[in-house]
């Protein structure tokens, strides 16, 4: 497995888009840190009350992690959209599959190799945003809350990775990238619609539509639960997530839903292993 993890990293570094992603990530983190520092300085000059300062810190955390999850999703899409069909077109997959290794093990090894680096990248983003808001804006965060939010924030792109790798067995590289991006965007759009609808009360039809979307692609639901846990759960999250327009959170994904996402990922991996074992190389 270690060999495949190292091979995946070498494959990522050979792609120009990897360098572009790192540059964009660095620019985002620098600009975000500067913006948070300036807003904190303005609060100090205007002698903002502690309650208002706390609310501003929460808002900055929500916005920072929203863009961080977009970057994590972009990293997943460019790294995994051609895992199978891309290597098949280049002839690399045929050479690798010729080894005396069951194909399902090869598929799982490729998934694990990508999952490790996706988790590393997402973890660095999450910790950078949380540390910036905590140190610059003075938002208090508890270690237990950070740990729960951290685990769920990493789980979100891994779910997307499982979906993108399954698509790479059936679709060409570009088509799979578009397909996975559209599904991710659809889930994100549904979450924003639910946030907007909270102001007039969640319409039952909208609630059912959002629930169905969450079952099909649960990435946004996991991300929102990550925010909820990071901001202190029921104690604090309601303050920041109840009056933020499209970023509001009228409902919180339950623990049962999180268990569903585990089964969702397991089914995607099983389907991927099964399809890859039967694929004509």
Automatic annotation (TrEMBL):
Top-level division of the source organism's lineage: Bacteria
GO molecular function, a single term: ABC-type transporter activity
GO cellular component: plasma membrane
Transmembrane spans: 17-36, 57-81, 111-134, 146-167, 173-193, 257-276
Annotated keywords: Membrane, Transmembrane, Transmembrane helix
One Pfam family in the UniProt entry: ABC2_membrane_2
Name under which the protein is recorded: ABC transporter permease subunit
Species in which this protein is naturally found: Cohnella xylanilytica
Lineage: Bacteria, Bacillati, Bacillota, Bacilli, Bacillales
């Amino acid at each position: 497995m270690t060999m495949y993890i190292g091979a995946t990293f070498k494959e990522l570094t050979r792609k120009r888009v990897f360098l572009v992603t790192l540059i964009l990530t660095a620019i985002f983190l620098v600009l975000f840190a500067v913006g948070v520092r300036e807003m904190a300085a303005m609060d100090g000059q205007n002698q903002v009350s502690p309650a208002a300062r706390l609310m501003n810190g929460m808002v900055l955390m929500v916005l920072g992690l929203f863009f961080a999850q977009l970057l994590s999703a972009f990293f997943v899409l460019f790294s995994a959209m051609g895992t199978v069909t891309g290597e098949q077109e280049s002839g690399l997959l045929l050479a690798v599959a010729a080894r005396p290794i069951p194909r399902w093990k090869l598929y799982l090894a490729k998934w694990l190799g990508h999952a490790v680096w996706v988790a590393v990248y997402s973890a660095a983003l999450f910790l950078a945003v949380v540390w910036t808001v905590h140190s610059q804006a003075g938002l208090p965060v508890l270690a237990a809350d950070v740990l729960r939010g951290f685990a769920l924030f990493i789980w979100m792109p891994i779910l997307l990775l499982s979906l993108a790798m399954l698509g790479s067995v059936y679709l060409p590289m570009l088509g799979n990238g578009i397909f996975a991006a559209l599904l991710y965007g659809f889930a994100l759009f549904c979450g924003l619609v639910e946030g907007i609808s909270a102001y007039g009360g969640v319409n039952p039809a909208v609630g059912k539509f959002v629930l169905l979307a969450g079952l099909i692609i649960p990435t946004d639901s996991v991300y929102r639960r990550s925010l909820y846990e990071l901001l202190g759960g029921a104690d604090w999250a309601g303050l920041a997530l109840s009056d933020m327009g499209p970023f509001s959170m009228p409902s919180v994904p339950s623990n049962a839903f999180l268990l569903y996402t585990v089964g969702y990922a397991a089914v995607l991996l099983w389907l991927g292993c099964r399809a890859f074992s039967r694929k004509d190389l």
